[in-house]
């Protein structure tokens, strides 16, 4: 336990020191300016989430590793892509490429092929395309967002097959995000300019509520950026893009307690993917992502039998590419060759909560069913993409029952079981399976400010279409060089089963040093053992090549261009990922301090090799001041990250430091003028490890970037 124990002490110690410094600083501030602080209200918010248990609860009360990002957080972050949204959330990382605006979420070292369920307005986002990057992306402009919630680990097994890493739920802007209480109409406009070769954003949202029985919201945004420079001042090819998004929502309340919402979201992204190295192909890419959903909710405080939430949804992601760079070859074709990748996901999610009491016990039974179907369609004029991202269909279905028991204010028990099943077919191959996954959580609150809990939860992920059916040759480095290797399908893949053990602590205390201050903290220690973990394996004889087509070649010695000739997705008997997460914030009204930290280690238990997907250890602290009667906010943050155990054959940035600063002035509640500097130190770093054979495709993160924005709201 040498490294584990040392890191635990390091993370816990750093977090404790930071919060202790906050307490000491507050005491000093009180002594120096007690009169100034008297009567201040703390602006700390206890956000409410339903993500962990499908029942409303405060984040700091939830017996799970849950985090929430709200509009005030988004205003300070000024995000340009979804990865920015979670920059202060532990356990959440992104494997994003600079030349692809798509995002791939990593939670606790698990990502790709649906290991993290991504939900936008209740609709799953399941797009995947094989290539030199992540195997699972979604496309979403953060300007459309109102809030985001994340639960880490398979504790949210009520959200269906696949989420052995966790669940991320995004909610886009709605009427209540634009109108204030009593208003019948409102408009929200936002604009932002950023440096680093030019970035622009403009958005406009409008909402009307003619009566309390219905309201309508519409909005659109446009974002554009040129190629950015990394921390060395080097321009990153094809990192520019144009993103146009729109949404429309209509909400009806036909009767007391009933709400019906119709939502539509669209995203059009134009960009070039691929670097300009002589041997690398580049593609002009046009991506269209559309989501539609219908949701019906019924909830009345006096109705203990029914608290119902049901939705049906449809999502389509359609990517069309034209080759515009690189050498010609049988795999990627000639310049002008076309290919497309499309996935349609349709499904429904129905659940209800029934509440009752027996003697001194409070019960909440939540039960439901869900289903989704992925239809993957790949078209390539060369025929190669049909093999690496094969067409096929997958149906996933399930149901769950959860019992939540509370006694007084100090005891809580959550017990749940979920049934999952799947069917997959394509290319003349089929696969199916099912399983029951249990979950149990026990929480004790010995004092009003302190809760400790333990959880055992299992999750189940069915193999993806690509993992099962992928086939075909990978192109050589350049024209005339043979294929580097060949993908081999595996119809015998078994589903993954995550078995997570977790201990958590929630701390919530008000009025510590003075009336109105507040402390919130969550600590989680976890170990997730994944049986039959699916990973890519290499085997077969080396691939050789004769560099000169002249007589005697061979027997002139051949050049080995790859150590293996075959690649296949296979089940690893067991993988283990364990770690610690800390998230804390102290708010004294005039100033606040936040600390987040994560440490993780993941290994193939049988081979004793590190897992590539495990992110860096990371420590982040932020400090903010509220001045001029809270109209002026100043904030600075520092993030230190370090990789400690990466598989051989990968290039990575061992450690890096990111410093961000923010200033926002809000002369009225409806006007915000703000600015930020990201990567103030102009640090150069690769955000995640890259295979050494892929370095021509690697994209470092942006260097120093200045941002300025104006946000205006009005209504009546």
TrEMBL record:
GO annotations of cellular component type: cell outer membrane
Transport keyword on record: yes
Signal sequence bounds: 1-34
UniProt record, GO biological process: siderophore transmembrane transport
Compartmental location: Cell outer membrane
Alphabetically ordered keywords of this record: Cell outer membrane, Membrane, Receptor, Signal, TonB box, Transmembrane, Transmembrane beta strand, Transport
Ranges for domain TonB-dependent receptor plug: 60-167
Topology versus the membrane: Multi-pass membrane protein
Coiled-coil parts of chain: none
UniProt xrefs under CDD domains: ligand_gated_channel
Limits of the TonB-dependent receptor-like beta-barrel domain: 226-680
Primary subcellular site in the record, as a coarse category: membrane
Superkingdom as given in the UniProt entry: Bacteria
GO function term, MF aspect, one: siderophore uptake transmembrane transporter activity
UniProt cross-references to PANTHER family, sorted A to Z: HEME_HEMOPEXIN UTILIZATION PROTEIN C, TONB-DEPENDENT OUTER MEMBRANE RECEPTOR
Family assignment from sequence similarity: Belongs to the TonB-dependent receptor family.
Protein name (Swiss-Prot/TrEMBL): Heme/hemopexin utilization protein C
The gene coding this protein: hxuC_2
């Amino acid at each position: 336990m040498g490294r584990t124990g040392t890191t635990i002490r390091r993370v816990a110690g750093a977090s404790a020191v930071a919060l202790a410094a906050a307490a000491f600083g507050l005491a000093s501030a009180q002594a120096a300016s007690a009169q100034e602080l008297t009567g201040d209200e703390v602006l700390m918010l206890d956000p409410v989430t339903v993500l962990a248990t499908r029942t409303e609860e405060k984040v700091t009360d939830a017996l799970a590793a849950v985090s929430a990002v709200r509009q005030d957080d988004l205003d300070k972050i000024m995000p340009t892509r979804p990865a920015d949204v979670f920059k202060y959330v532990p356990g959440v990382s992104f494997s994003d490429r600079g030349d692809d605006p798509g995002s791939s979420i990593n939670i606790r070292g698990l990502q790709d092929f649906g290991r993290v369920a991504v939900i936008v307005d209740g609709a799953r986002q399941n797009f995947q395309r094989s290539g030199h990057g992540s195997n699972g992306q979604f496309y979403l402009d953060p300007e459309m967002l109102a809030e985001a919630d994340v639960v880490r680990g398979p504790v949210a097994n009520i959200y269906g097959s696949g989420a052995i890493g966790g669940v991320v739920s995004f909610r886009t802007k709605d009427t209540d995000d634009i109108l204030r209480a009593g208003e019948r109409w409102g408009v929200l406009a936002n604009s932002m300019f950023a440096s680093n070769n030019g970035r622009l954003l403009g958005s406009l949202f409008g909402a009307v509520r003619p009566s309390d029985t219905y309201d309508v919201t519409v909005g659109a945004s446009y974002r554009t950026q040129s190629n950015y420079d990394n921390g060395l001042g080097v321009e990153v090819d094809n990192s520019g893009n144009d993103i146009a998004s729109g949404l429309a929502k209509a909400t009806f309340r036909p009767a007391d307690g009933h709400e019906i919402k119709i939502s539509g979201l669209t995203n059009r992204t134009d960009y070039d993917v691929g670097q300009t190295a002589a041997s690398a192909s580049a593609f002009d890419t046009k991506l269209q992502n559309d989501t539609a959903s219908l949701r019906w909710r019924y909830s009345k405080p006096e109705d203990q039998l029914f608290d119902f939430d049901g939705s049906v949804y449809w999502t389509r992601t359609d990517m069309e590419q034209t080759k515009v760079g690189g050498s010609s070859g049988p795999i990627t074709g000639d310049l002008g060759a076309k290919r497309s990748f499309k996935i349609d996901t349709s499904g429904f999610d129905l659940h209800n909560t029934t509440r009752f009491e027996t003697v001194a016990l409070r019960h909440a039974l939540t039960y439901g069913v869900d289903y989704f179907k992925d239809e993957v369609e790949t078209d390539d004029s060369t025929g190669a993409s049909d093999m690496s991202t094969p067409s096929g269909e997958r149906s996933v279905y399930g149901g769950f029952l959860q019992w939540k028991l509370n006694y007084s204010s100090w005891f809580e028990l959550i017990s749940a079981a979920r049934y999952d099943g799947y069917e997959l077919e394509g290319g003349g191959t089929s696969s199916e399976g099912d399983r029951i996954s249990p979950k149990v959580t026990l929480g004790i609150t010995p004092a009003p400010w302190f809760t400790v809990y333990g959880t055992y939860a299992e999750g189940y992920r069915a193999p993806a279409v690509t993992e099962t059916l992928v086939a075909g040759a990978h192109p050589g480095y350049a024209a005339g060089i043979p294929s580097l290797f060949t993908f081999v399908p595996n119809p015998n893949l078994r589903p993954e089963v995550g078995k997570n053990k977790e201990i958590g602590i929630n701390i919530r205390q008000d009025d510590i040093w003075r009336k109105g201050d507040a402390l919130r903290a969550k600590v989680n220690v976890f170990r997730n053992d994944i049986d039959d973990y699916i990973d890519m394996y290499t085997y077969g004889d080396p691939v050789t090549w004769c560099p000169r087509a002249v007589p005697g070649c061979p027997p002139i010695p051949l050049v080995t261009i790859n150590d293996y000739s075959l690649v296949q997705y296979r089940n690893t008997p067991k993988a283990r990922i364990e770690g610690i997460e800390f998230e804390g914030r102290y708010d004294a009204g005039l100033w606040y301090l936040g600390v987040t930290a994560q440490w993780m280690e993941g290994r193939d238990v049988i081979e004793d090799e590190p897992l590539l997907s495990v992110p860096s250890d990371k420590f982040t602290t932020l400090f903010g001041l509220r001045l001029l009667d809270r109209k002026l906010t100043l904030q600075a943050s520092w993030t230190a990250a370090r990789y400690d155990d990466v598989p051989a054959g990968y290039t990575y940035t061992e450690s890096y430091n990111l410093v961000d600063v923010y200033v926002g002035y809000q002369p009225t509640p409806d006007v915000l003028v703000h600015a930020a500097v990201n990567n103030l130190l102009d640090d150069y770093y690769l955000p995640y490890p890259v295979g050494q054979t892929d370095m021509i495709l690697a994209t470092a993160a942006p260097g120093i970037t200045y941002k300025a924005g104006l946000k205006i709201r009005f209504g009546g």
